[in-house]
Design a protein that fits this description.
Largest sheet: 5 strands, antiparallel
Strand content: 25-35%
Bound molecules: zinc ion
Shape: elongated
Order of helices and strands: EEHHEEEEE
Radius of gyration: 19 Å
Oligomer: single chain
Number of domains: 2
């Protein structure tokens, strides 16, 4: 993948200030065009599926207010998701790293981006946090 370069990352857990370890991960740094495309795509998917659900609900149940409610929700949620995705400057690879708490290996979930990145350890349920080193 282009723009992927080894980047030092501080791996820690949220609840306690334990010494964090620094790992070098092949992180993808998103370009301006990629960030724009990613946020547009995400917001369109969310808005589209909400409107689809709204229209399907309109056909299945004779209750137009479901459609009327989902339409403004889609209009509000779409731009929010677009802004949130826009703020992600990096994309993390699906690599395994040792959990800072239980030392078992955890895989970074797919599609995680932006600093700090947080996800749960499968073994001890600790919130693993990745920060820019
Ligand atoms: Zn763990």
């Amino acid at each position: 993948m282009k723009n992927t370069r080894p980047t030092p990352v501080r791996v820690g857990i949220m609840e306690r200030r334990r010494p964090e370890l620094v790992s070098i991960l092949p992180i993808r740094h998103l370009s301006l065009a990629e960030r724009l495309w990613r946020s547009a795509k995400r917001s369109l998917i969310v808005m589209g599926s909400l409107l689809l659900v709204g229209n399907a609900a309109l056909i299945l149940f004779p209750a137009p207010h479901i459609h009327l409610c989902l339409f403004p929700i889609a209009c509000v949620l779409g731009p929010i998701i677009a802004i949130m995705s826009w703020q992600d400057r990096v994309l993390f690879p699906q690599v395994e790293l040792p959990c800072p708490r239980c030392q078992k290996s955890v895989t970074i979930p797919e599609g995680i981006g932006g600093w700090p990145a947080r996800f749960n350890c499968d073994s001890c349920a600790a919130m693993v946090e990745l920060n820019e080193a």
